Amino acid sequence: MNPIAKRLIRTLRVHRNNKKDALLQRGPYLDDHYSTVQGSAMRNSRERFSEKKARTRSRIAMQVKGARSKDRTANWYYTGSSLTEASSLFKVNLLSEIKSHLVKSKSKNYSVLDIGTGWGQSELSSEIAFSLKKSFKGIKTKVFGLSVTRRAESVAPKDVSLHVGHAENLTRVFKNGKPVFRPNTVDFIYSSWGLLHSADIDIALNECRKILKKGGRVIFNSEEEIPIVPQGFKLVRPTTINRSYMPPYKYIHYFEKK
After folding, report:
1. Torsion of CA 145, 189, 135, 185, to 10 degrees
2. Dist. CA 227–CA 229, nearest whole Å
3. 200-239 pLDDT, tens per residue?
4. Which terminus of the chain, N or C, has fewer Cβ atoms within 10 Å?
5. Separation between Cα atoms, residue 199 and residue 202, nearest integer Å
6. CA 117 to CA 98: how far, in whole Å?
7. Are strands 233-235 and 178-179 parallel, antiparallel or unpaired?
8. Domain 83-257 classified CATH 2.70.50.60?
9. Quick one: pLDDT at residue 39?
10. Separation between Cα atoms, residue 213 and residue 113, nearest integer Å
11. Phi and psi for 110 in degrees, rounded to 5?
12. Within a 10 A sphere around the Cβ of 190, how many other Cβ atoms?
């Protein structure tokens, strides 16, 4: 049997057994369990809410914490991503858009961020990094990648600076104890299939706004149309619909920081 299939079956079995264990947890055991895992946070919830609601809040917090921890080691990847596919998704030539923005910005230190860099997605970032360095030899260009899994680091090309983190915490991504993305340091952000999976896309866009320079741009796709331009941004072009892709992810947004 395929090793990946074996791992999937084993994960499902563990999940099933954990679910059975959860159904058996009753009475005093729950109190001991939550007081051990959550400690003062659980006691604080009990003071503010009913016992039932406190347990529910604690369980959700544990699930979110576990999911985030799993994200950083799980075998998540997006295959077959290329510059051609990204341009088809965004309905604009992504590389030409980045190059024209570089010329317009007149920046001597131009940086690009790809949110949602998976195993296959690093191919797209590498194409952009190579083309920028070839076309603008007198300008310092750098391409960053943001992934939720550390396994993507093992296949990240040398010309892409890959970091592990979430879009909702861009300003809290660190390397060697120092923040990677400082305020007003990034020129262009693109995200194909990345930002749309954020737990809170409003928070993620606010983080993008913080790290973008004035006039910096962000282009991404989403499940739902964003009817109001986020605070601190203006439209580069009206929201477009790409009907050739899966219906849930068809809205393409393109903003510029004011």
Report:
1. -90
2. 7
3. 889 999 999 999 999 999 999 888 888 889 999 999 999 9
4. N
5. 9
6. 17
7. unpaired
8. no
9. 54
10. 12
11. -105, 130
12. 26
Query: Which sign, positive or negative, has the C-alpha torsion 216, 219, 220, 225?
Result: positive
Q: Take residue 142 and report the two structure tokens written for it.
A: 């750098």
pLDDT band at 64 (very low <50, low <70, confident <90, very high): low
Average pLDDT score over the chain = 77
Residues of the chain with CATH 3.40.50.150: 83-257
Tokens, residue 137: 């030899």
Choice between 5 and 37, residue whose per-residue pLDDT is larger: 5
A 10 A CB-CB count for 128 gives 23
Q: What is the mean pLDDT of residues 116-140?
A: 81
Q: How far apart are CA 240 and CA 18, in angstroms?
A: 44
Structure tokens at 200: 């809170």
Would you give the DSSP letter of residue 38?
T
Q: Find, among 146, 141, 135, 144, the residue nearest to 96 by Cα.
A: 135
